[in-house]
């Protein structure tokens, strides 16, 4: 079960979720606001309900829809897709180098369900990002303040280590230091301890699962496809199609807001909804213990 304090609160509100894609066409509020500010009400618009009134974004599972993810004994399971036949996919975004306020507005105003896996050295801009995606304009611009804006926009903030190592090259103690250190830091900076872990490069071993458990993390989350600059989807399956339950991986890269628009309209054109990952994980792990 995903039962972290915020996870529980998020999950408890999941029944009120609505699909983000349905709102895309209608919503352009906040386009002209200054970086990092709350969206100003549009002239003539009715007052918008608060995020609490709206509930978490994204499609939530129907009764009996979601299959069960098998348990990994006493260790946190490793999950790369959600077992469902519904045309629903899940968005996740990693690292945290490029900190474009336009992306936060997009996520908040369009009620896009997305889960962020942040890594300390990216958030704090210690070192330099991969140049993929072009020249960064907002690298390290807001640091943890940017992550708090994401949190306030309804984005769950999860664990992606402190320094982005290949965990398989590290022993248990060093892995645990990366995982627990990241969870502690996120708890301090963001106010909520992560419940999910994404291993850098998707590499892990049993020590990673043991460390995740020791740090209070309840699942390792992998992915089925990555989203490249330009919004292009790179599949990890031979038939190059979106599948129900796919987990897509994006990065905080330059031009993210534009690429994200392209991606979301592509997903919608193919008849898929965006799902609320917390709600689906809760359903998928319901009998896992
Ligand atoms: Zn990463």
UniProtKB/TrEMBL annotation:
Superkingdom of the organism of origin: Bacteria
Residue ranges, compositional bias (Low complexity): 32-45
Signal sequence, renumbered to the chain: none
Stored Pfam families: Polysacc_deac_1
Region (Disordered) residue spans: 32-78
SUPFAM superfamilies named among the record's database cross-references: Glycoside hydrolase/deacetylase
PROSITE patterns: NODB, PROKAR_LIPOPROTEIN
Domain NodB homology: 87-275
Coiled-coil segments on the chain, per record: none
PANTHER family from the UniProt entry: GLYCOSYL TRANSFERASE-RELATED, SECRETED PROTEIN
Protein name, entry field: Peptidoglycan/xylan/chitin deacetylase (PgdA/CDA1 family)
């Amino acid at each position: 079960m995903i039962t972290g304090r915020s996870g529980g609160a998020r999950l408890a509100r999941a029944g009120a979720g609505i699909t983000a894609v349905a709102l895309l066409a209608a919503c352009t509020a906040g386009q002209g606001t200054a970086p990092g500010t709350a969206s100003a009400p549009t002239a003539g618009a009715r007052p918008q309900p608060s995020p609490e009134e709206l509930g978490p974004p994204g499609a939530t599972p129907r009764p009996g829809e979601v299959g069960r993810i098998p348990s990994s004994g006493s260790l946190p399971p490793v999950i790369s897709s959600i077992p469902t036949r519904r045309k629903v996919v899940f968005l996740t975004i990693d690292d945290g180098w490029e900190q474009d306020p336009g992306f936060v507005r997009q996520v908040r105003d369009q009620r896009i369900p997305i889960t962020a896996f942040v890594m300390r050295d990216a958030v704090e801009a210690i070192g330099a990002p991969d140049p993929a995606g072009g020249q960064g304009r907002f690298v390290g611009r807001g640091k943890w303040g940017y992550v708090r804006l994401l949190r306030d926009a309804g984005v769950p903030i999860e664990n992606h280590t402190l320094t982005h190592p290949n965990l398989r090259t590290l022993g248990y103690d060093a892995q645990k230091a990366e995982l627990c250190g990241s969870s502690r830091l996120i708890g301090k900076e963001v106010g909520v301890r992560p419940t999910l872990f994404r291993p850098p490069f998707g590499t892990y071993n049993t020590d990673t699962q043991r460390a995740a458990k020791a740090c209070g993390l309840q699942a390792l989350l992998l992915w089925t496809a990555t989203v490249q600059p330009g919004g292009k989807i790179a599949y990890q399956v031979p038939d190059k199609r979106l599948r129900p339950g796919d987990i897509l991986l994006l990065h905080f890269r330059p031009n993210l807001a534009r690429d994200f628009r392209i991606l979301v309209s592509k997903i919608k054109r193919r008849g898929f909804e965006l799902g609320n990952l917390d709600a689906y994980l809760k359903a998928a792990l319901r009998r896992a213990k």
